[in-house]
Write a structure and sequence with these properties.
Arc Repressor Mutant, subunit A, 3 domains, 9 strands, ATP-binding, binds glutamic acid, Rossmann fold, EC 6.1.1.17, 19 helices, Glutamyl-tRNA Synthetase, domain 3, ATP binding, protein biosynthesis
Length: 496
């Protein structure tokens, strides 16, 4: 453990730290949480905070999500010193633009015998796995089939164009040990570590290789990341050794959790930074709330700014326990901050965000067809603002003929989940939502009319509204998701 009381932190200073999100969906509060600690540590010691985009997993990549990461971190004020958009001396900062480097580095490992080509087919690996499961083997993994191919045979097969991956040659025995500065020394038995794939047959590196190569070439001194990467770290340590490079210092922060202590997930909790932005939480409040999840000022003081956290920061005050993302507390913090503002300041904040021209003009365009007086606008537009709605007056409209409430709930839940996975609809424009909703009805044997009414009631709390899909787009994905989830819970609570 560091255990230093304000003493010098471990590792080289000034630090060079990074966050390395993968652009696979909406910007997650977990990413913001990790970013905050990296940012604070860098600022405390006059270091550099880097943003690197880990986009080598082509299957999981979603367009637009890189820009969303930038937007979310900027909204929070966590500005980075080097990154894909701002440049820097160690670029490019997008892994997909660094492929020649990974090829060159993997080549070195193969030449040194630290890594080896593996020609096993998917069929063989699947069969191996099945056998291992059937034999109740405690650890599943590669059996080293291609480990002992002679370099000449391996080279000949590669030259002949045979499909292959490159694996790390993990030592058969011994241990891999590293210090996690929040948890102490961690030891892993090498025989339990799989011969990790470093390079895939599609010509892309895996997370492990690219992450280590980049951290080395970008001069990263401290890796501050989430607990979910702890089991990757011994593989990384082995890789640093194989390359002959010095490993950075490691810190694994606790995983954010739902109230029931499970890993924070969007089924139980809103996890997108945009949810909190769009529902009117203040960025400085969200940061202070997140800081409290892992940091203690030591005197029961919960309310502090990022500047104060930087001035105070010591690793010995960081806790690695899995903190609960407690919505009620965030709400209380936000309320207190709203009350702490002068009405004048509040007005400026409202105009800047909730009532900006950019936000209001499209809403007015919807309302003007339907109201007669200027003072009708605000009440008419009410459902475009705020979070949860009162469904008391429209409860009956959540019933669908010949379907149980449980069935309706399951369908709404599936709708919310599937739209997230649809590359076009997840952008949440009106035409894309409409196309998705029609396809969803067809695929699930629902009448458009029935589903559309349900969505309208869920999203607006009313049975009549401007064009449904326009309305959904203008309410925003996070507000719609929240309300659909509320309705699902309401229906589940009803007797079937
Ligand atoms: N690409 C990983 C992620 O999505 C990076 C993990 C790390 O920081 O090493 O979080």
């Amino acid at each position: 453990m560091t255990g230093q009381d304000g003493a010098r932190p471990p590792g080289r200073l000034p630090p060079r730290v990074r966050i390395a999100p993968s652009p696979t969906g909406d910007p997650h509060v977990g990413t913001a949480y990790i970013a905050l600690f990296n940012y604070v540590f860098a600022r405390k010691h006059g270091g550099t905070f880097i943003l690197r985009i880990e986009d080598t997993d082509q299957e999981r990549y979603t367009a637009g999500s890189e820009a969303a990461i930038f937007e979310a971190l900027r909204w929070l004020g966590l500005h980075w010193d080097e990154g894909p958009d701002v440049g820097g001396p160690h670029g490019p900062y997008r892994q997909s633009e660094r492929l020649p480097l990974y090829r060159q580095e993997i080549q070195k490992l193969v030449e040194k015998g630290e890594a080896y080509p593996c020609f096993c087919t998917k069929e063989r690996l699947d069969a191996l796995r099945r056998d291992q499961i059937a034999a109740k083997q405690s650890t599943l993994g590669y059996d080293g089939h291609c480990r002992s191919l002679s370099p000449a045979e391996a080279a000949a097969r590669m030259a002949a164009g045979e499909a292959h991956v490159i694996r790390l040659r993990v030592p058969d025995d011994g241990e891999t040990v590293f210090v996690d500065h929040l948890r102490g020394e961690l030891r892993f038995e090498n025989r339990l570590i799989d011969d990790q794939v470093l390079f895939k047959s599609d010509g892309f590196p895996t997370y492990h290789l690219a992450n280590v190569v980049d951290d080395h070439h970008m001069g990263i001194t401290h890796v501050i990341r989430g607990e979910e990467w702890i089991t990757s770290t011994p593989k990384h340590v082995l890789l640093y050794k194989a390359f002959g490079w010095e490993a950075p210092e490691f810190f694994h922060l606790g995983l954010l959790r739902n109230a029931d202590k499970s890993k924070l997930s969007k089924r139980k909790n809103p996890v997108s930074v945009f949810h909190y932005r769009d529902l009117g939480y203040l960025p400085e409040t969200l940061l202070n709330f997140m800081a409290n999840l892992g940091y203690s000022m030591g005197d029961d003081r919960e309310r502090f700014t990022v500047g104060e956290m930087i001035a105070h920061f010591e690793w010995s005050r960081v806790s690695a326990g899995g903190p609960v993302f407690d919505q009620t507390k965030l709400e209380a913090f936000n309320g207190a901050d709203i009350r702490g503002m002068s009405p004048d300041k509040l007005y400026d904040r409202l105009i800047a965000r909730e009532l900006s021209r950019e936000r209001m003009v499209p809403l007015l365009a919807q309302a003007q067809e339907r109201v007669n007086r200027l003072d009708d606008f605000i009440p008419y537009l009410a459902f475009f603002f705020g979070g949860s709605l009162d469904y008391g007056p429209v409860l009956d409209k959540l019933k669908v003929k010949d379907r149980t409430p449980a069935e309706v709930a399951t369908t709404l839940e599936a709708f919310a989940q599937d739209i997230e996975r649809d590359p076009a609809a997840r952008e949440f424009t009106a035409p894309a939502i409409e196309a998705f909703a029609r396809g969803f009805c067809q695929a699930n044997g629902w009448k458009n009319k029935d589903l559309f009414m349900l969505l309208r009631v869920a999203v607006t709390g009313r049975t009549a509204s401007p064009s449904l899909f326009e309305t959904m787009a203008l309410c925003g994905k996070d507000r719609c998701r929240l309300r659909i989830r509320d309705v699902v819970a309401l229906l589940r609570a009803q007797p079937s």
